[in-house]
């Protein structure tokens, strides 16, 4: 099934790439479409969702709801680390994670490693609300294979955020044990990772695998939920792990006041949301065999 | 746009009933379809979602994910009340809320008032996982207008659960101020309501209206979230309110142990999930002007 049918962008919903559940968004105006070296890239305008970017037929972001993903994948690890100075972002070529990480007062440098230069260029041109911070002096953008970059850099970062697409196409290697091993080695002592880790509703088997894999390698592991209505199932999650310290991810070290939340223009993340995001439904908790997350 | 296109059940996603976002579920086997006195009723089988029931083109439940809705709309109010003996369910003809309420040890009687007898009959026949408890001696089923029943009964129930469909068709009157006034009068002292209250992503204006309306009438009001991947946006919420007591809905009076959760076969609800469900993203909290929900 093609991604475009009669003016609708159509996305298959299930992990196995079958066509049992499909979500369709009216494409009110096509802004840009190209086949890059790595993937099909489309930007379109939806009357109800604003600007939307899709890669290989999967919605990556919409103007209406991107904040819940960008804020959570950034602030969950940053606020779990006592002093996150050096941040690496793997993927994230739209610039949204950079935008959020720059809000954190401890962050001194952000390196972004995006394999597809066209995602960065197209985002700069058509998604200014995402790609607003590429020129910030703290930001360094590398075009290349993030996995290779991680292997070449040891003990280098306090926080590594893997802002990847789904485990197919260019992102498939980012959901394997070797990648997590390399992430660990790329972290400084006390370092934390946050990786895009799919939905509890249709990818629980994958989440279980990632959780178990990370648990073999890292001192602390947790899975957190956020809501993104334009992703399949309306929910996506993040795998967080700390290299060498036992930490309780459910209780952030940096607690933002309501004033800070307002100053930082956070529409989703708060200290309370941070805590709540690690509380998992029983059917997930039982699969991951996590202990009761809060008292 | 019709609900069935080329073997797919298609649902429009947005409050305004436009066709900008559509979700489509492959209808692998049509089990039953009829036009009842009140609405179009369809039961079909999906390979990935199991048995599904739709009313007037809107998905009401699927076998895969119904538990998160049924458990939450039942246990959030029941565990917020010190002694919920008498329960009224408005709507809920599929029987799922009865099934959950019967698990609570304090509950002595459950009255269900469903306007459409065919929903009850069809659920008994085709959805045995939902309609398992209609014959329980604690349960009384009335076929009729729930709103009329509420107006006729004062100071009668400890908990009233409005398990309604969306605010169109037979359910439209259940989203109006007069209905909330009648709910209040139908409650006994200390009584609590829980009403289906749509999604934060596309119906925030309605939620704001319901929240403000209930705040004028009730002593305590709160909105809670749950995840239902087969509902539009993947999230739905509940409006809870207590007739005449200041209570903190975010902290349940009855705290279930892990053993109780296992005994009751709860796949979603736990004490931790209860607390977390009242923690709202900033953009919702700001609209509802609620205070910080947890400390």
Notes on the protein architecture:
Two copies of one chain form a homodimer. Chain A is an alpha/beta fold and 295 residues long. Chain A has two domains: 8-62, Spermidine synthase, tetramerisation domain (Spermidine Synthase, Chain: A, domain 2), CATH 2.30.140.10; 66-293, Vaccinia Virus protein VP39 (Rossmann fold, 3-Layer(aba) Sandwich), CATH 3.40.50. Helices cover 27% and strands 30% of the residues of chain A. Chain A has nine helices and 14 strands. The first copy, chain A, has helices spanning 66-78, 96-101, 117-126, 146-152, 177-186, 204-217, 258-263, 271-277, 282-288; strands at 4-5, 8-12, 21-26, 29-35, 40-46, 50-55, 58-62, 86-91, 109-114, 139-143, 157-163, 187-196, 220-227, 235-242. Chain A has a seven-stranded mixed beta sheet, sandwiched between helices. A four-stranded antiparallel beta sheet of chain A has the order 4-5-6-7, with helices on one face. A three-stranded antiparallel beta sheet of chain A has the order 1-2-3, with no helix packed on it. The longest helix of chain A has 14 residues, at 204-217. The first copy, chain A, is globular, with a radius of gyration of 18 Å. The first copy, chain A, starts with a strand and ends in a 7-residue tail after the last helix. The model of chain A has no long low-confidence stretch (mean pLDDT 93). At the A-B interface, strand 3, helix 8 and helix 9 of A face strand 3, helix 8 and helix 9 of B. Strand 3 (21-26) of chain A pairs antiparallel with strand 3 (21-26) of chain B, so a sheet runs across the interface.
